[in-house]
Amino acid sequence: MLRIRLVLWYSFLVVLTVASVGAVQYFLLYRSLNNELDSALLADAKTALKLVSNRPSKHFSESPSHIHTNYSSKTLKQLVDDAIKDAPDSISGQDLTDRVLSSLMDEMLGELSGKDSAATEPFDALVERTLTSRRNDLLEVYAIEKDSIGSQVLHPVFRTQNLGGDTIRDLYSIKELTTKDSAVSLGEIEIGGESLRAAVASNNRFAVFAAYTESDIWDAISRSERTYLYILPIALLIATLGGIVLARKALKPIEDIANTAQDIGAKNLSRRIEMPARGDRELTSLINTLNSMISRIEGSFNQIAQFSSDASHELKTPLAILKGEIEQAQRRVSLVHQLETLEAQQILSSLMEEVERMQRIVDGLLLLAKADDHRLPLTKANISLYNFLDSIAEDAEILAIDRGLQFVRKLDKNANEVHINADPTFLYQVLMNLLDNAFKYTPQGGTVTLFLNKAEDSVLFGVEDTGSGIASNDLKKIFRRFYRTEQARAHLGTEQTARSLGLGLAITKSIVEAHGGSIRVESEIGMGSKFIVELPVA
């Protein structure tokens, strides 16, 4: 399903992109063609205005579509005066000279030919040569005059035949025109189901309207639309095929990861997902995360298996003793039908010891379980660590003397004002566990030291002894549950060591970490051990 969704989304995005580009191109093309058409119309209107303005005004009659000549024999001076009179007021100098010479040449050719209209061509033929003669061109020319009250009067001079009965001026409702030399685009208008764009150029003598239908524009846009209609299904097909290939290639490493993860079970938790030869950052991160998770699961699984094995082993001994004591009592009762008071007390005392041992194991396991689940019930208080250790040292000194050991205090005076946030009960348990281990594994005549030092933003304290020490390969294992070193097992001849549960250091580590601290050990065989606890300062 994920592959199908990827293909569908990819195809949808491609089609959406093509459609969006098409819509933008449609808008840009329409606007560009309209702008170009407006520019062309303005140029045509200006060209026609310039052309008609350079013709003498007497060459125009009331005929709506032709220009004719009306010559008579005149002197050269009269011809020059008439040419200057007909010339626009806006020209002078060389332009005026060229205008007069052009008029004289027309008059002279007319006189020489003897024909009334040979020198001047019809205005529509002149416009046809001047402009591009496109079939959709529409052109109107008006002469501008003033009536008796000064109002503007437009006389039609020329109009193209393709206008039919319409006039551009009336279509756009033009009543008044500026007499300044200017050109203005009139925009778009609908006529007979067809769009028309027009422009007007005018001066103080003439106004020229140029218009063009938008049929060519819509033809170009229609061709563009048909092109996109052909492109769209092709783009959809390419996107679908490409999406299938890309989705298969992109999801192949994920499928390999899923297959490998499915093969990993309780029997082969040591197996890891292999890193691809050219893995992307996201894929590499996913594989590293999964491998890290599998490593944690493997560690937890091994810890649970070891815990179950150790717990079973530790509970097996007291249960066997309980069973043996009960069976012995039953045999005595069956033989003599009674059990002496002293013997019964000894049996009950032995049973009680084993029950207490089992209870200590269960209590220790429950405490560790709560610590693992971050549910250790801490009741913290602001404690002066110096005073706290000093009070414990008094009791520890008595215990050390009873075991034939020398007890030393090394409490830094600079740490006298140091306070920590800790649970006094659990902190006492930490120190007593460390002191108890030091007393157990230090031979008579040895030394046990309780120390305290202040760091920059933390405090260091712990217990150091001159006992048998710990092997280097055991240093990372001594905080495990039910773990006892070979040196510890060698002391099993003493009753106190034999009753050890192997949970003291594991509980100590859990309590210290629950307070946001850490514990470490420094030791060498035959040189003793040093347990260092570090807690943050309040």
Tell me about this structure.
There is one protein chain. With 538 residues, the chain is an alpha+beta fold. It folds into 3 domains: 32-217, no CATH class; 288-371, Helix Hairpins (Orthogonal Bundle); 377-536, Histidine kinase-like ATPase, C-terminal domain (Heat Shock Protein 90, 2-Layer Sandwich), CATH 3.30.565. The protein is built from 13 helices and 12 strands. The chain has a 5-stranded antiparallel β-sheet with strand order 2-1-5-4-3. Strands 7-9-10-12-11 form a 5-stranded mixed β-sheet, with helices on one face. 21% of the residues are buried.
Index terms:
about 550 residues; Helix Hairpins; Heat Shock Protein 90; 3 domains; 5-stranded antiparallel sheet; 5-stranded mixed sheet; 12 strands; about 15% strand
What general form does the structure show?
A: rod-shaped
Work out the helix count: 13
Q: Could you give the distance between the termini?
A: 55 Å
> What is the rounded Rg?
56 Å
Overall helicity: 40-55%
Backbone structural class: alpha+beta
